[in-house]
Amino acid sequence: MAKVRKEYDAEGVKLTMRTRDYLADMSGQLALGIMGNLVGQMTYFYTDKVGMAVGAVGVVMAIAKIIDAFTDVIFGNIIDHSRGGNKKYFRWMIALAIPAAAIVALMFTVPKNVASGVQVAYALVTNLLLTAVIYTMIATPFSAVMVVRTKSNSERSSMGVFRAVGNYGAGMIIAIATIPVTNMLGGTQDAWIKYGVVLALAVLLLFMICWLNGHKAAFTRENADESGGPAVPEEEPVPFGPAMSMLFKNKYWVIVLLFNLITAITNGIVGSAGTYYCKWIFGNDNLVALLGAVGLVATVIGFILSKPIISKLGVTRTVSVGCLGAALMAGIRCFAPANFYLYVGTSLIGSFVQIPLMCLYGVLLAMAVDYNEWKYDKKLVAMSSGAIGFGNKVGSGLGSLLLSAFLVIGSYDATLAVASQSMRFSIYGFSNYLPLVINLLMYFIFRGFDLEQKLPQMRAEVEARKAGKSAE
Q1: What CATH number is associated with residue 140?
Q2: What is the pTM of this model?
Q3: Are the CB atoms for 367 and 452 separated by under 8 Å?
Q4: Which of 56, 334, 366, 453 is 20 to 30 A from 22, alpha carbon to alpha carbon?
């Protein structure tokens, strides 16, 4: 007997998503995740494969991310001022799919046997093209899709789970495959270039899958209302200055901004921390693949349980459990940092408790956008998404800068056969102590996010205002 598809969620909101929509949406996030997580590996590639100075690498990554951050805000405002319905959220993806693939491959073609300044300039330009231009012009409208694709919090949560699977899956692919594959190919820069070409082709294919489904999807605001009335008109754009003022007066948006900023700092460090830890603490960088493979089991279980956990705990408590759980695991690791089994166990549990939290990033943004509508009668969808991207990019840049700072303080020397004591302490610092502090900070910041219980009443008031205007 065929399964009857539900038309409304538990709150009475019309459902619009199908399984193929979730899978296609996830493929777009997977492609973006490959591009984003690849940046996390570049510090190791630049220092240990190209031979660039640690300090120069840190400055390059920080400058690229800071410039990148401002492009998110600017491009978000451009999208909010553009027309075209749902097509405006996907047309950038199809236009930039080939350039995205090209820049992924070019990241690894840093010229060798040239002046260090030339290498630094090449690294800076390619990082800017990858993150500040191409990634931003695809990710900013794609992030806004979750808000306008459906009004159902249940479907938004499901989209969040699928996107988290895509993003985390990309991270797992990069973590598990990068070192073993490049070592198998010879461990040289040429090996990394070949690896980059494969990733580039994967990015191109995934963007095409996402675009083919997304550009013809009917978004919530394009659907006629229940009475058969006309589709909801596009929102009138707000000038850049007033829009930013509105956002910073929305405390929930500010909390989400800080939350993304701090999370991005952690992710910017974690992307390379495992490789340094395995190479210098455990003596074998190929262990990164083993850790990633073992972690995949916990990850799969975490994603399977994410939806039930979120449904049981709610948004706020899920975030609190994720932050405190990760902080606890990092704290335990501080007492025996060179114990391989303790490192594996705490890393797995720490990742597991944060997986449901990862599924909520888009949901939290959508809730802040709904608050914009209640407070200002303006959603500022793309602007909100772009400004959140600002936090992600600045945080990622600060993460790379902090990572380089720890390595510089620890007198990092990639030519040594065995890590010095100062190198070991610096690796412990950014791998264990910093995550402990950061996760505790995120927990205390998020305590001010009390929107979850207020939102149903706010939405009812918004609908009442709309009904009143329609009756005039």
Answers
A1: 1.20.1250.20
A2: 0.65
A3: yes
A4: 453
Nearest-5° angle of CA 205, CA 211, CA 215? 165
Residue 175 belongs to a domain: yes
d(CA 170, CA 36) in angstroms, rounded, equals: 9
Per-residue burial over 445-472, b = 16 or more CB atoms within 10 Å of its CB, e = otherwise: bbeebebeeebeebbeeeeeeeeeeeee
Q: Which residues pair with 8 in a beta bridge?
A: 14
Instruction: Give the integer Cα–Cα distance in Å for 304 and 298.
Output: 10
Please report whether residue 163 resides in a domain. yes
Total domains in the fold of the chain:
1
For tokens 């979750």, the residue is 146
Other beta carbons less than 10 A from residue 297's beta carbon? 11
pLDDT tens-digit readout, 272-300: 777 888 888 988 877 877 777 777 777 77
CA angle, 314 then 33 then 383, to 5°: 70
- Tens digit of pLDDT for each residue in 143-155? 778 777 777 777 7
- Domain span holding position 186: 24-215+239-467
* pLDDT of the residue at 225: 42
Q: Is residue 327 situated within a structural domain?
A: yes
Tell me if 31 is assigned to some domain: yes
> Which burial class, exposed, middle or buried, applies to 194 when counting CB atoms under 10 A from its CB (0-12, 13-18, 19+)?
middle
* Residue with tokens 């249940």, as numbered in its chain: 154
